[in-house]
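Hello again, I could really use a second opinion on something today. My current little project is about how a certain protein chain folds up. You're getting the sequence in one-letter code plus the fold written as tokens. Here's the protein in full, and shout if anything looks odd to you:
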Amino acid sequence: MAPHLHLLSLGAPLLLTEAGDQIRFRTRKHFALLIRLAVEAGRKFTRDYLMDLLWPDVPAVRARHSLAQALTVLRAKVGREHLVIQRSSVGLAPGAVQADVGTLDADEPAIRGQFLDGFEVPGAVQFEQWKDEWRAKLMPRIRDSLVKQMDAGRRIGDFAAVEKHAQLLLELDPLSEDAVRGVMEARAWVGDRSNALKAYARFEARLAEELGAKPSADLARVANLLREGRRATPRPDAGAAAGAGAGQVSERRERRFEAETLIGRENEFARLYDAWLEVRRREPRIIVVLGDPGVGKTTLVNAFVSTCQMEGAAIARAQAY
């Protein structure tokens, strides 16, 4: 059965038609009932369970009447044929309403916030408990999905998308290093080192205050790279050794991260980034970028190299004419 309605619950809940029009409910408990049925469509719930869920503090007669009224509203909203109503149980037919919690493992689920963000049902303690349980159960999947979408943005150099997903993850989990790194990368990509480093400083302070911990060495390396370049391993300097005696070494710093504006090269950038991922798996690669003068080869390569540098690559540059 093709769904004719869509329930968006990852954020403030919305019920939409196929055309994208919002279906509204006059009573919040009626919407809460639909949400409970749609999240586990196909499952049958006893009438007693649903009454306790939404009308726990009213006499049984009134609770049954309220449930009956709510089911009448749901019939009108989703269609009589999609509700499975029996003497002692109620359910929603599978596929009638597509709930976004079932698409979290898709490529780009529409995550707008935590489960049922801002949706509260006064007097329905058991519904609130159920909501909290589902939030806890869904949070690891939400986190994984946002990180996956950030990685997809990195692959094509779309750091606006990286920042969007990173900011949302940071709101949901202020101690997520993946989120902070995404924000730092995105700000650095547009040349905003100042706010990238402020994001790092806030995370560092919060981590110390709440957990007594420090950011990972890799995130600290990124911050240092943005701040001033990373100090390389000292090596002997032949000139200095000859003039000032053996044993002296020179110090060089890795070139500080420099942002590049990349427009319309998503496919080419993705091919380079895929090769970089293979290198990280210890599979050496050589890539030659060819093209007519002025088409943006240098910008493309610089953008790619900057991304690799952010992810820990050691960069060597050479020019020949």
The two ends are 64 Å apart (CA to CA). Residues 125-155 form the longest helix (31 residues).
